[in-house]
Write a structure and sequence with these properties.
The complex is a heterodimer of chains A (about 900) and B (about 120). With about 900 residues, chain A is α+β, with helices and mostly antiparallel strands. Chain A is about 55% helix and about 15% strand. Chain B contains 4 helices and 3 strands, in the order H-E-H-H-E-E-H. A 3-stranded antiparallel beta sheet of chain B has the order 1-3-2. The radius of gyration of chain B is 17 Å and the shape is elongated.
């Protein structure tokens, strides 16, 4: 049919749809008119009035049927049917509020959890950058996958220049430093921190991001006098801080305590290239010619049609050349190994650097799989409920079939009802997910720059949810609907209400639910055990009751003044009752830290590897973090000034270089310097670089100042934080206190991934079991209630209560065992996947350990039996007389 | 599987007519002048000399379908006896459709008559 033809008929169709009453009335009038004329015609032929009317009606072949055919001819009936079905479905759902509430709640939990995880994955990993042609953007990842320095590395400025030259014919390389909190002020430095990002000058031109006012950074900025000190504001920051006032252009701001001239504001919608971080101010990165200073992260926009694999080969070649010519000659043996292990990967970065997203990708994908399984279990559950309900509605359905409804029509009506359920579930689920994503994000450890993921559900998220709800409706609703419309009305109606529906599909669904629940339980168990293993690792120091904070001070503050300030703050803090000891030093946990090579005087180096970890420690440092002394003494406040210089080493150091001999009194030099240090103490081994890292050989040096403070106190964290702020303010007004938090929190944040995975997989595992148990209970209870008369008969014939209970339990146990057997297979697959493909998610778990399997299986069977026992007990209490009169 | 009761006889099918020709006949009749459903049935009987019997039960759905296709248009008029009645008339699209179907019919029927007139050996 031609398109204009369709167009022409649209008004008619719409009229029949929306002005249904009028169309119906007209149809009535038309047929009545016809009947009257026909009757007149027959009257004229000499028939009686009655006979004429009868013949006229007969000719028409039934008024209602003809009407229906006319309606069909208008071809809008399916929409009318749908609306009608919707009305009917809603009425049916209202009639059984208990069923409706359980179904909607179960669906909402399943769909909501799916939407929440999808939203996070979308926001942190998948949504494209708000720039033109984001698919052309790639991240140049410099990383090694093994050894102590596994992970991503940054680039030096010379390497950036080298890469730019390499890529010149087929792409443009651009660079950005890590987004960090920077001090910000208008006329003087204030407490305020903003998210600042130093970028290469071609950053905006390559991303094709323009200004809304003024200009952005330009490649030519190098040639302008003072070109280094220009700043571009983000649109959001400009509105928030300057109320979108254009007079800010040309004015000077203090960024990181340095004056910059504001030259423009980037266009709205551009937040930078790191999802989750909304940059406030961009400044040009300072070119540092030293190849050992690595601050830059590199990205490239490849010209259209350039093969990323070829680009990767070219970058890798350039990198190898740079390593060989520039870096290797001056590298320590250990660092040489690290450099050789590093490679360049050209990673698609249409969604930006996505550091947070990639960090949490594995746990999020695992959780995604978990919530999909939970949704499947919910679907099976609801399908079972519906099957039971349809059996109860069998009579109604058969009557409708007998009255002439087609099977397709009945099935479609039942499906519409189920679809309505899933729509409600999706609606509530989206509401839940909005709350759920926020909870999920709040479970992540705080980052220096406040996380700013765009968690508003957008078109993609809504499409996902819509697809999920249609899929769930098909999964749980189509089967039961088709099944219900399959019966034979003649036989059913003749046979009265006693319909024996085969329960096999219901049992299959039950077994499926249990089979899905078991892998979830085992997976959750693995994650909980991993978390437990990680938490029970001895870090070597005692983080409990220790508060840590960072001290920040204006640039150019003299060393003497800092020494004084550190000593004074320590003293002030310790003068508070409840504070046991306060000290300072370099970061003790997780922040990477420094390493250098060591020479032990009078000792031929045992082996090539002489790299040691370095930590500077103020007086009372070891006492503050609770690091036990094995030999000699701790560091004292006089150590810095006295000669000879001293150091404390750890157990591993002492064992490695001195074996069973005492380390006290031995002398070392560090990093090839002339200063000879005497070892005055040996402390226990501590893991300073993360729970999963090995223990390094450590050297602790006395320090007179430190940016990190540690306060051991028997005080409530909140009041201690107040004391800390007051003490610092009293010592020196120019100092600022930052990141006041318990050391335990710092430690815990290092295993936040594992904590998140363990927590959520347990919650969803428990939820899955609960849903499966409810399903089991429901199905058994229903079948028991249907078999009441059978049980009554059995008891009347001599069966004991115990026999009935055993009968019900035995039949259910078969289903449970069948489900669990399949589940064990699934769980084995899960264990295999988690311990191999997604390595690194488990810790300290032996794949051969079957106690977890036994535990999970036993608890699942126990829960299932309990769910079956309650209705079984009820069955056994049936009074035979009552039961037999039941029908 | 037991056949459902609805899958019985379909009474709307004009068994006397070649499928699809009812549409063409109705279009042709309405091409002469606008008229109501009753008149259409009378005229059909009249012009075909009572050979073509179309049951009233099939006529109205067919008319509604033609209207839906946009080939005929309907309006309510007061008839000669002062009665309100629904009058159908051919649209421009309907006229084009009639020409097409009449052409097809002409080709089909002449082909069939050529076959029928073949002399038996």
């Amino acid at each position: 049919m031609r398109p204009e033809h369709r167009l022409y008929t649209i008004p008619l169709r719409l009229r029949s749809l929306f002005r249904r009453a009028q169309a119906e009335e007209e149809l009535d009038d038309e047929l009545r008119d016809h009947l009257e004329r026909k009757t007149e015609e027959y009257l004229a032929k000499g028939m009686t009035q009655e006979e004429a009317r009868r013949r006229a009606r007969l000719d028409l072949g039934g008024i209602e049927q003809t009407k229906e055919k006319c309606r069909d001819a208008r071809q809008v009936t399916w929409i009318q049917n749908f609306v009608q079905d919707l009305h009917f479905g809603l009425r049916m759902l209202r009639k059984s509020p208990g069923f409706t509430a359980v179904a909607i709640l179960t669906l909402a939990l399943g769909i909501g959890a799916n939407t929440a995880i999808f939203t996070l994955l979308h926001a942190s990993l998948w949504s494209p950058l708000p720039v033109s042609d984001p698919k052309e953007i790639f991240h140049l990842m410099r990383s090694s996958s093994e050894g102590d320095f596994a992970g991503e590395w940054s680039y030096s400025y010379p390497l950036f220049q080298q890469f730019s030259k390499t890529a010149a014919p087929w792409g443009e390389v651009f660079a950005t430093e890590v987004v960090g909190p920077r001090k910000f002020g208008l006329n003087e430095v204030s407490d305020q921190r903003i998210a600042g990002e130093a970028v290469s000058r071609n950053f905006f031109s390559v991303l094709n991001v323009g200004p809304i006012v003024g200009r952005v950074l330009e490649p030519q900025d190098d040639n302008v006098p003072g070109g280094n000190h220009v700043a571009v504001l983000s649109y959001v920051f400009w509105r928030r801080r300057f109320q979108a006032d254009t007079s800010i252009l040309g004015k000077t701001i203090l960024y990181d305590e340095t004056p910059y001239t504001v030259v423009g504001v980037a266009r709205p919608g551009f937040f930078g290239i790191e999802p989750g971080e909304s940059v406030d101010v961009w400044v040009p990165a300072t070119p540092v010619p030293d190849p050992d200073v690595i601050l830059l992260r590199l990205l490239v926009r490849l010209h259209r049609g350039v093969d990323p694999a070829q680009a990767q080969a070219k970058f890798e070649a350039a990198f190898r050349a740079h390593v060989a010519e520039v870096l290797l000659p001056s590298a320590s043996p250990r660092f040489k190994q690290v450099l050789v292990a590093q490679h360049i990967t050209v990673r698609p970065a249409a969604s930006g650097l996505a550091s947070t997203g990639r960090e949490y990708e594995k746990p999020l994908l695992v959780l995604f799989a978990v919530v999909v399984a939970v949704l499947l279990i919910s679907c099976a559950n609801i399908a079972n409920l519906i099957l039971a309900r349809n059996t109860a509605r069998h009579h109604e359905i058969m009557v409708r079939l007998a009255l002439g409804a087609s099977r397709a029509r009945v099935a479609w009506q039942l499906f519409t009802e189920n679809f309505t359920l899933s729509l409600f579930g999706a609606f509530v689920g989206v509401l839940l997910s909005v709350w759920g994503t926020r909870v999920l994000v709040s479970l992540l450890p705080p980052s220096p720059v406040p996380m700013a993921f765009n968690l508003q559900p957008d078109f993609v998220v809504f499409s996902f949810t819509a697809a999920v709800s249609v899929a769930t409706a098909v999964l749980f609703g189509l089967g039961p609907a088709l099944r219900a419309a399959r019966g034979n009305p003649d036989m059913s109606l003749q046979g009265g209400r006693r319909v024996i529906a085969s329960p096999s599909s219901g049992r299959l669904l039950l077994a499926g639910q249990l089979a899905l629940s078991l892998p979830l339980l085992v997976g959750a168990g693995l994650f909980v055990e991993t978390l437990h293993n990680l938490k029970s690792i001895d870090l070597g120091f005692h983080a409990e009751h220790v508060m840590t904070f960072d001290l920040s001070y204006p640039k150019g503050t003299s060393q003497d003044r800092l020494h004084q300030a550190c000593a004074e703050i320590k003293q002030r803090l310790e003068s508070h009752p409840g504070v046991i000891v306060a000290s300072y030093g370099s970061s003790v946990y997780g922040d990477g830290g420094w390493s250098t090579s060591v020479d032990v005087i009078g000792n031929p180096s045992p082996g090539k590897d002489n790299d040691v970890g370095l930590i500077s420690a103020g007086p009372g440092f070891f006492e503050a973090i609770g690091l036990g002394l094995l030999q000699g003494r701790y560091l004292r406040s006089q150590d810095q000034a006295e000669k000879p210089s001293v150091a404390v080493v750890n157990e591993s150091f002492a064992r490695h270089y001195f074996g069973s001999n005492s380390a006290i009194g031995r002398r070392i030099t560090l990093g090839g310097s002339q200063t000879v240090r005497e070892i005055v103490g040996v402390v226990r081994d501590a893991k300073h670089y993360g729970v999963r890292e090995r223990v390094w050989r450590m050297v602790y040096l006395p320090a007179q100042r430190g940016d990190n403070f540690f306060v051991r106190a028997n005080l409530h964290p909140q009041s201690l934080a107040g004391i800390i702020r007051a003490s610092v303010a009293a010592s020196d007004k120019t100092l600022q206190v930052q990141e006041v938090r318990p050391l335990v929190t710092v430690v815990n944040d290092m295993i936040s991934q594992e904590r998140l995975t363990a927590l959520l997989s347990s919650v969803f595992g428990a939820l899955a079991c609960l849903i499966a148990a409810i399903g089991l209970y429901g199905v058994v209870a229903y079948s028991v209630s249907r078999r009441t008369s059978e049980f009554g008969m059995r008891m009347a014939l001599g069966a004991q209560r115990g026999d009935i209970r055993t009968l019900v339990l035995r039949q259910t146990l078969a289903v449970i065992l069948c489900g669990v057997a399949i589940g064990i297979g699934g769980a084995l697959v899960v264990v295999h996947l988690l311990s191999s493909a997604i390595n690194g998610m488990l810790y300290g778990i032996k794949p051969t350990d079957i106690s977890l399997f036994i535990g999970a299986t036993t608890s699942l069977v126990a829960i299932a039996l309990l769910a079956a026992f309650l209705p079984a007990r009820r069955a056994s209490r049936v009074d035979p007389m009552v039961a037999l009169r039941y029908e | 599987m037991i056949v459902s009761v609805t899958e019985g006889m379909d009474m709307s099918k004009p068994s006397d007519l070649v499928q699809g020709t009812l549409d063409m006949l109705l279009l042709k009749i309405l091409a002469l002048e606008p008229m109501n459903g009753f008149a259409v049935s009378q005229r059909l009987k009249q012009v075909s000399g009572d050979v073509l019997q179309v049951s009233d039960g099939s006529l109205y759905p067919a008319l509604h379908k033609l209207e839906q296709e946009g080939w005929i248009a309907a309006e309510w008029k007061t008839s000669e006896y002062g009665r309100r009645a629904k009058y159908y008339s051919l649209t421009r699209l309907g006229r084009r459709q009639l020409e097409k179907e009449a052409g097809n019919w002409g080709r089909l029927s002449s082909a069939i008559s050529r076959v029928i007139k073949l002399k038996e050996a």
